[in-house]
Amino acid sequence: MKKNLVVIHMESLSNQILFQEMNNLKYFMKMKSESIDFPNFMSSASSSIMAFTDFFYGNDWELDLTTNFENDFKIAKKDKNLFTILHSEGYYAKGIAYPKPWKDEVNTYDIWDVPNNIYDYSSSNEEEFYHNIFNAMENAKKQELPLALHVWDIRSHLYYTDELKEKGKNFFERRSLGYQSIDRTFKNVVKYLDELDMLDNTIIVAYGDHGDEFWSHSLNGGFCHSMEPYSTLVHTPCFVYDKTIKPSVNKNLVSLIDLKWIILDLLNINYNNKFDDIGCNALQIEREFVFSRNLLANQTSKYNGVLRKSYSVTNKDYHLIISPLGLEFYMYKVDPHNTFNLLSFFAIDNNAEILDFDNRGAWHTHFRNVMRNDQIEDIKENFKIMYKELLRYVNKKNQYVLDNNGTNILKHINFRKIKEQGNYQWNA
C-alpha cells in the first residue's frame, strides 16, 4: 500500500521565532520531538512564493527569469512539480490554504500545475479551512487513492489575518495568535488522519519558509523579510513525521530544495529528473553547503532599491552573504542574529585571500579566548572555500540571466568589498 503524504508549509516560522513562540506551538513541538528533526535545515529563499516554488520543483531556478511579480512573472518548468509527479503515480493530490493571499500567483502563473486541479483558497474562515482539509482526506479514502495534501496556514504572516487573529489587542498578541493558528492546524491534521484510520500510513513533512526580523540590519523600507538572507530569516524548522520511523535528529545540512527528493525516496517513487541542477536526498547525501537568496536572478529591486539583491552560502558553522553593500561573514551558531561581520577584522585581496588579522583594539581575555590562532585560521579557511562556492553559484545565476537576454544581475565588483560594520563603537 502506498504511503499517504501531508506537507505543512509553516508560514513565517524561523528557528528564532520558534524559540520566541514555543508556548504557542506546543503541539507542533510535540510532533517535532516524535519526528526526524533537521536542526541544520535552511530555506532557499527569504520570501514565501519563492520558497513555495522551490519546494514543489526541488530546485531554485524556476522563477529566475522573472523581472517583477507584478507584470512579468515567468516559471520555467525545468523539472516537474512534486504533486504533479504524485498525481501521475495515482495520488489524490490537493493543495489548501487559508486565508487567500492578496495575489494568487500559484494558480495564475501555473506554479501549481496538477492536471484538472487548482490550489484551493476558497476557505472564508477557519472552520471552512479545517472542513476542506478533512474533506480532502476523506475523498482520497473513499476513492481508495493515496493522499498527497499540501496545507498552508498563512495567518502567521505579518500581513494576513482573520477574525480570530484580530482579537489581539496589539502586534504581540496578534503575532502569537497567528502561531497558535499553525498549532491548531497541526493538531487538526493529525486528528483527522487518526479519525479516518490514515495516520499510521501517512508521512507528514513540515517546513518553515522564512522568518522575520524587525529592521535589525537596515530599515529596508519597512520590510520584515525578503531582504538579505540572514540566518534569522533562512534558518527554519523542518521535520518528517512517520509513526513507523524512530524519532531522531539528523544533523546533515538540508536545503528546502532537497525536500522533494527526500519525499520521493520515502514514498519509494522512482523519478528521472529532467533538470540537473536540483536538490538532493539529504537523508543519504551529506551536503557541505546550502544556498539562499532574497530576489530572483533577473528580478529588479523594487521600491527604489530598498531590497538589495543578495545571495548566501552556509555550512555547519559559517554564513556568507553577498549584496551590493559587499561581503558579510558570520558565525551564525553563536551569532544567530548575524550582528557582527567577521570580515571587519580582516582585509581581502583580489584572490579572496584574507590578509592579516586586526583585533581593532579588542584586548580583553574574553576576546582572546574566542579569537585564538586556531579560530582565526578556521575563519580564513572557511571563508576562502565558501567565497569560491558563492562566487560559482552567483556566476551560474548571472550567466543564465544573460543567456536569456536579462540584465538585472549582481555585479562581480561586490565580491571585492567588505560590508562596513556601520556606526559601531570600536573604541568604547
CATH superfamily of the largest domain: Alkaline Phosphatase, subunit A
Give the CATH level 1 class of the largest domain. Alpha Beta
Low-pLDDT residue intervals, each spanning 5 or more residues: none
Give the strand order, joined by hyphens, for the main sheet: 4-5-1-6-7-2-8
Give short descriptive properties of this protein.
2 domains, 12 helices, globular, alpha/beta, 13 strands, four-stranded antiparallel beta sheet, 428 residues
How would you briefly describe this protein structure?
The chain has twelve helices and 13 strands. The chain has 428 residues and is α/β, with parallel strands linked by helices.
How would you describe this structure to a colleague?
This protein is an alpha/beta fold and 428 residues long. It has 2 domains: 4-293, Alkaline Phosphatase, subunit A; 310-416, no CATH class. It is 30% helix and 14% strand. It is built from 12 helices and 13 strands. The chain has helices at 15-20, 26-33, 48-57, 82-88, 105-108, 126-142, 171-195, 231-234, 259-266, 302-305, 365-370, 373-403; strands at 4-10, 36-37, 41-42, 92-98, 147-153, 202-208, 238-241, 248-249, 254-255, 290-293, 311-314, 319-323, 326-330. It has a 7-stranded mixed beta sheet with strand order 4-5-1-6-7-2-8, with helices on both faces. Strand 11 and strand 12 (319-323) form a beta hairpin. Helix 6 (126-142) runs parallel beside helix 7. The longest helix is centred in the last third of the chain and has 31 residues, at 373-403. It is globular, with a radius of gyration of 22 Å. It starts with a strand and ends in a 25-residue tail after the last helix. The model has no long low-confidence stretch (mean pLDDT 94).
